[in-house]
Amino acid sequence: MECPKCHTENSGKNKFCHECGAKLALRCSQCGMEILPNDKFCGECGHKLGETEAETQKPAAKIEGERKYVTVLFSDLSGYSAMSERLDPEEVKEIMSWIFGEIAQVVTQYEGFIEKFVGDAVMMLFGVPNVHEDDPVRAIKAAREIHNLVKAKNSKLKPKISQPLSMHSGINTGLIVTGEVDVAKGTHGVVGETLNLASRLADMASPDEILVSRQTHVLISPYFETRRMKAVTIKGKTKPVTPYLVVGELVVHNRFETAKQRGFTSFSGRRSELTTLHACLDKAVAGNGQFVTVVGEAGVGKSRLVYEFRHSIDRDQVTISQGRCQSYGSNVPYLPFLNALKRGLHLIEEDTPSELKEKVVSNILDIDPTLEQFLAIFLHLLSIPSTDHLLPENLHGLKLKNSINQALAALIILNSKRQPMVLILEDWHWSDEASDSALRHLISLIAPYPLMVVALYRPECTSNWPNWSYHTPIVLKPLNSRHIETITKAIWGVDFLPDGFASLIHEHTGGNPFFIEEVCTALTEDGTVRLEGRQAAFMHSLEKLSLPATVQAVLSARLDRLDPAAKEVIQLASVIGREFALRILEQIFDPGDRLSLSLETLKFQELIHQIRLIPEAEYMFKHVITQVVVYESLLLKRRKNLHARVGRAIEELYFERLEEQYEKLAYHYLNSSETGKAIHFLEMAGDKATRVHSLTEARRHYETVLSLFNAGKMNPELQDNFINLTLKWAEVSQYAPSDKISRALKLSLKYAQEFGKESRIAGVSYWIGRFAYMQGDFVEALPQVKRCIQWARDLNDQELLATSYNLIGRSCLYTDECSKGIRYLEEGLSLIKPFRKWGDSV
Questions:
Q1: How far, in Å, CA of 295 to CA of 203, rounded?
Q2: Backbone dihedral angles phi then psi of residue 29, each to the nearest 5 degrees
Q3: What are residue 556's phi and psi, to 5 degrees?
């Protein structure tokens, strides 16, 4: 046990710290209240204490703060004051402990985190310590259950209190910064405006109302019926906030059903997989049972493939049954089989217990009378009360589990003997242990029957199936650019896409169909792409692509499931870049053998690919957006620190070929706190680009480096450096003039005049005149160049004098001073030949 004062580890038998003498105590994992040795429930919040509660008090590994998009649920109790007036304080405490205990259990069920209890209110987080892709949905489901639990308590309290108890809740989704998890204190140390808005929404909600923010509404609208409320002004917010009232739950349960409601895009790139499914079905119909696994990352199209398969089957000839696992249902035994049972036996929510029992018994016996021996098990599984079908008293534990496995297998197999059958089990990566056992038992028996079982799951699922000869694995790969183009045209309803667009989308999404659809929708919504008739056109670069919250949630949830070492490695890699060398990673990763193992984990999870073995190992993120999500999760301070470490590692590792690394060094130091090095390497990168006539890149580097100078802290040395960089920028921009360059030149002239350096004044004056000439402002150009001629004569700078004559001569031609202009041009021509460069062409 860790001492709360000095953090020294102590034996579980110690009552006081052996280092500092402080009292040691176990605390509730939900509210932080001290736990007494024989307590079964927390005396403060009512949380049930398990046998391993003491183990949960051991300090977890320290988790450095992160930036995360989470959903915050703030629930407050209405009627507390009235209850406090009518009841004894001891009764009030008992009721509040019960309420808090029930809330704790609901939040645990949905894998949320109770941040804190504040009086008669509770703040709950969904997305810390681990993100789930459906955290907003979980938060609303939890809120609805909490509201119903408190309302149910009123039947007992009504005679005692004047005002019924009820909850009112506010929910918001957004960015927070997490701190270190402290189970003993019941805190995750989160901060951010996201929390405040959830609290404000709870304050605005009436009794038994759940109000959600616009950000949350976007993510939950396919799953819940809502009503838009009037916009309100909230303290601390510059713009009015529009809350949405949660009215009820819709029948849609997952992203696939949402896509189905919206209308599917073209089914593309999966014809061979569909052919494989039909080949397996043909074998099953012939009496050779088949087990098919469809494996692929989230959003790659597993459900769509099986949907197309289902709808290509003749339902009069083949029975189709479906079961689905749920992300928050992995602690519900046999959940996917319960789903399939309820559908197959035609059970509905409106049925009374007697109607449910009658349906179960009659429908099961219709399948085969020999199933009567399992009726008690099926009624038990479905939680349907019965007095005439009771489980034997000795049937419990492993015996009960084996009996359930036998009953489910018998029901499914006997049903397939009546008519060939396809059983589809979706999202098996969220399956519970009991369901996995039942499926393995079923698969071991299906070989001689007309039954095809299809299980869909993600690569992170660790199901190691036996070597059944009738097992066919289908691994869904990402789509290629040709299929991406087909899908994108269908999404936007266009016939033409910008050149190279499909390749860009492939680079960002890795060919994941769900990511493609979400990104394409986001591009039109934020104005990056404009649809005109039957054609799409770019309005902005994809470099600043704003990732849809849905995509971020899927990737963040996947990343949070990594072990700490693998997560640290991928975070460090995200700072290095989309492609990263092993030797750089080794320089910034703590010593140990975890690096190679973590890289293998990331490769196995298909988050990264190895792209080079020799002369040195290099890797690449599978998706650009994966790198972006990982990078954005890092605290700003840590990002800066890591960029500096990467920069120093590159300097050390590639010191003999440093020029090749100028651009990378400029990028890393630019994003660190080492401004001096950023200025140096940006200039080097600009000079390098200039030498190879890559003027666009050179302009970008020089413009960036000049933006780093602080006008308020310019000593003569910095001023001279600023002038030098401005002149370089001007030289590569003479055919791409801009107001930014003109402003930098005028500021440079001011600096040059301040320390009276004639050569600098002359050079800057020339370029001010030249840019004015290029922009057609000859009135501005002539006096600047005349001053430059005078300075060039005084300095005896023949090259500057030659180019100045050339420029003033051309300016005179445009101001109807042709004879004067010709004289200047002739004089300049006689001087310019020895100094002429590519940039001085007329």
A1: 45
A2: -70, -15
A3: -65, -40
Sheet holding 421-426, edge to edge: 319-324, 421-426, 451-457, 290-295, 471-475
Phi, psi at residue 610, to the nearest 5°? -85, 125
Q: How far apart are CA 806 and CA 773, in angstroms?
A: 12
- In whole angstroms, what is the distance from residue 686 CA to residue 694 CA? 9
The H or E element spanning position 620 is: strand 618-621
- C-alpha 497: how far from chain center: 27
Gap between the Cα atoms of 754 and 287, Å rounded: 94
Q: Say if residues 336 and 435 touch (Cβ distance below 8 Å).
A: yes
Return the bridge partners of 618, or none: 581, 612
For residue 678, the SS3 value is helix
For the ranges 12-16, 39-43, 54-58, 771-775, which has the lowest average pLDDT?
54-58
Whether the CB-CB separation of 180 and 63 falls below 8 Å is answered with: yes
Dist. CA 761–CA 795, nearest whole Å: 11
Of the two residues 215 and 525, the one the predictor is more confident about is: 215
Which residues neighbour 292 within 8 Å (Cβ) at sequence distance 6 or greater? 276, 277, 280, 452, 453, 454, 455, 471, 472, 473, 474
DSSP per position, 739-803: HHHHHHHHHHHHHHHHTT-HHHHHHHHHHHHHHHHHTT-HHHHHHHHHHHHHHHHHHT-HHHHHH
Q: Determine the Cα–Cα distance for residues 794 and 418; give it in Å rounded to an integer.
A: 107
Cβ-Cβ contacts under 8 Å for 451 (sequence gap 6 or more): 284, 289, 290, 412, 413, 416, 420, 421, 422, 423
Tell me which DSSP letter residue 426 carries: E
CB 617 within 8 A of CB 599: no
CA pair distance 130, 110, nearest whole angstrom: 12
pLDDT of res. 42 = 66
Q: How far apart are CA 540 and CA 547, in angstroms?
A: 15
- Strand duo 579-581 + 608-612: pairing: unpaired
Compute the distance between CA of residue 826 and CA of residue 563 in angstroms, rounded to an integer: 75
Cα–Cα distance for residue pair 505/522, rounded to 1 Å: 12
In whole angstroms, give the CA distance from residue 449 to residue 735. Answer: 77
Tell me the per-residue pLDDT of 393-419, one tens digit each, with 9 for 90 and over: 888 888 999 999 999 999 999 999 999
Three-state SS string over 509-560 comes to HCCCHHHHHHHHHHHHHCCCEEEECCEEEECCCHHHCCCCHHHHHHHHHHHH
* 443-452 core/surface letters (b: 16 or more CB in 10 A; e: else): bebbeebbbb
Instruction: Sort 739 into a burial class: Cβ within 10 Å, 0-12 / 13-18 / 19+.
Output: exposed
Residue 373 corresponds to which amino acid?
Answer: Q
- Rounded-to-integer distance, Cα 55 and Cα 286, Å: 54
In which band, very low, low, confident or very high, does the pLDDT at 5 lie, cut at 50, 70 and 90?
Answer: very low
Structural contact between residues 344 and 321, judged by C-beta atoms closer than 8 angstroms: yes
Would the pLDDT of 579 be above 90? yes
Residue 52 has what pLDDT? 39
DSSP string over 156-175: HHTTT-SS--EEEEEEEEEE
Tokens (6 digits) for 93:
């405490």
In tens, the pLDDT along 72-129 reads 999 999 888 888 888 888 888 888 888 888 899 999 889 898 888 877 889 999 988 8
CA 163 to chain centre: 43
For residue 574, the model assigns a pLDDT of: 95
DSSP per position, 562-592? S-HHHHHHHHHHHHH-SEEEHHHHHHHSPSS
Spatial CB neighbours of 771, under 8 Å, sequence gap ≥ 6 = 730, 734, 737, 741, 742, 745
Find the largest Cα–Cα distance for the chain: 118
Torsion of CA 135, 139, 144, 150, to 10 degrees: 140
